[in-house]
């Protein structure tokens, strides 16, 4: 971080940890752009160490659909509660022991880091490592931030895909209504990795 700059942190709604509908969650999530007129240097996707579950994969998938694949190159997977592990041990565990789906997400993102939640010197070191990781994301992007224009483009692409799916479904329903026998309507979904 440059001496004359400070971090601005915008906490967003969780993608799958709420009782709201998917549409409401997406709409609330998208509002973060109101707080980031100059773009975003880094997204932090927080996961408690040892707890990466299908829900986290689904949330990352939703994030990528809402913000576009380019947002992942600005995203750090930040593992909390790594109180007994330094970041080197976290990196080794991710490379050697993590499930294939988690390794795939780490590869798609800007990186991963483990942080300690305990008070004291370990927490201070974790904070410094996190700041260094955010700076590494900034350097890797040559100062090009993820922009609100990129978010708008991702939103438009997502909306167009949803509209195409709605139109296809409406067409299938119309065909069903014309027929006299059973019609099977199948819907392909992206597999959760």
Characterization of this structure:
With 193 residues, the protein is mainly alpha-helical. The protein has six helices and three strands. The chain has a three-stranded parallel sheet with strand order 1-2-3, sandwiched between helices. The longest helix is centred in the last third of the chain and has 31 residues. It is elongated, with a radius of gyration of 20 Å. It starts with 21 loop residues before the first helix and ends in a 15-residue tail after the last helix.
Task: Sum this structure up briefly.
The protein is mainly alpha-helical and 193 residues long.
Structural class computed from helices and strand pairing: mainly alpha
Largest sheet: spatial strand order? 1-2-3
Helix count from the secondary structure assignment:
6
In angstroms, what is the radius of gyration?
A: 20 Å
End-to-end span in angstroms? 35 Å
* Biggest beta sheet attributes: 3 strands, parallel
Number of strands: 3
Order of helices and strands: HEHEHHEHH
Mean pLDDT: 80
Which ranges are low-confidence, i.e. pLDDT below 50, for 5 or more consecutive residues? none
User: Share of helix among residues?
Assistant: 40-55%
Q: What best-fitting shape do the alpha-carbon axes yield?
A: elongated
What share of the residues does DSSP label as strand, in percent? 5-15%
Oligomer: single chain
